[in-house]
What does this fold into?
Amino acid sequence: MSRKEIYAWSSLALTLAIFGYYLLSAFGIPVGMEDYGEHLKSLIWKVIGVAFLVQLVLDLLNSSRVGGVAKDERDNQIESKAFRNAYYFLMLSVISLIFNVLISDFLSETSGNELFLNVPFMIFHVLVFIIFIASIVKSGTQIFYYQRRI
Amino acid sequence: MGDFHIENNIRVLRFRNGEMTQDELAQRAGVTRQTINAIEAAKYSPSLELAFKIARVFGEPLENVFQYNKE
It folds into this structure.
């Protein structure tokens, strides 16, 4: 496994853990899982800690140039594909969100009912979801191509 | 008309050059071992610059290392 692949795995773990922590903080512990709340939080902190340490060690190795080349043309090619996919997802999601807001606004005015996206802070949460998922798409694409050994 | 793809003789050339390891070739070409592995398995087509670097490591002309053949 190359350093960039390890970096992609740790980046994915870190994003998922932070996303999980955000979900728990914003929406609380899921119904039926109240007993496991503390375990869940402790697990998330452990994942964040380990992923952070792995990235720190990799950064130190890369800066000291120990153990050969850290990144080459294949890594750059895979990274650019990952950024492309994340960008497509981000743009598509943001455009869909804008249309949803416009439609929700129009429907709220005509029907008088408050719709999902008109709930305060819901657009903020959806935007945060989109950013997290775009980051997951980036790391996921990198891992996919590394696993296929292209 | 069939598709063309890039084949290579890197494995043969490595063994002819004192059983050079993928890691050694990677260091001399300035890439990671995983990239050499992917090129050798014909799963990744290197840039022209990297192809020349690999050929230079073996002291061979480019066409002795890489071939562009019909499948």
Remarks:
- Chain A has a mean pLDDT of 84.
- Chain A touches chain B through 17 residues (CB under 8 Å).
- The longest helix of chain A spans residues 73-111.
- The CA atoms of residues 10 and 144 of chain A lie 14 Å apart.
